[in-house]
Amino acid sequence: MGHLDHAAYGWLTPALSYVMASIGAALGLRCTVRALAATGRSRRNWLITAASAIGTGIWTMHFVAMLGFSVTGTRIHYNVPLTILSLLVAMTVVGAGVFAVGYGKDRGRALVLGGLTTGLGVASMHYLGMAALRLHGRISYDPLTVGISVAIAVVAATAALWAALNIKSPLAVAVASLVMGAAVSSMHYTGMMAVGVTVTPSDAALPGATAMQFIFPLAVGLGSYLFITAAFVALSPTADERAASAHARRLGEGATAH
């Protein structure tokens, strides 16, 4: 068995991956709060933004953490199409969960369905990302630990959707986001604890791209997207602010008419 190192750069990758997961969760929760206060096309657009933020945050968390993953005795490459597919899966299933909550008439049923769908999707993203690994050897998994990681993903997703439905204040959203970041990170590292690698030493070239060739630039790009989206959300007026502005405008128009 090859020796697995989950933090080859020390605490840098775990800490950075936690930050990315928390930022994605914070953006997703804020966008969902905005969506629930909106109607029509505006609600749909906010929900799409929420899904892309959470999905991007989760995916970036996973692969930033994977930058610190190494196995003694073999290099590691990544299959590019499978890696991109894992990103699409993350965004799609999170979108399904967010839309279930955003449009569901029965909030309790929507929460259970959305949490289950999103949690299984997050787990699928993780293990698709693991399936994209190319190394000299064979990867195996401990079924019990895999099951625990999937359960953590479902619970974390359900808690995130519950927070989106019930938490409104910015401070509460911030606290919930930190908790969600910890839950997503726990799911990732629990899943990684399930991994075992039997190394077969070889000098043959590995297919795919190295983490620095592909994962790092993509993670930086998606991280930039999260920060730009954060600025957009911060600068966009809330429903209360729009209502107050409209009220002030009506008062001004009434005063002018008199």
From TrEMBL:
All copies of domain MHYT, residue ranges: 9-198
Kindly indicate whether the keyword Transmembrane helix belongs to this entry: yes
User: Any idea which UniProt keywords this protein has?
Assistant: Membrane, Transmembrane, Transmembrane helix
Give any Gene Ontology cellular component.
Answer: membrane
UniProt-listed InterPro entries: MHYT_dom (IPR005330)
PROSITE patterns noted in UniProt: MHYT
Q: Mind telling me which residue stretches traverse the membrane in this protein? A: 15-33, 45-70, 82-103, 110-132, 144-164, 171-191, 211-235
Top-level division of the source organism's lineage: Bacteria
Matching Pfam families: MHYT
| Name under which the protein is recorded | MHYT domain-containing protein
Question: Which species?
Answer: Streptomyces venezuelae
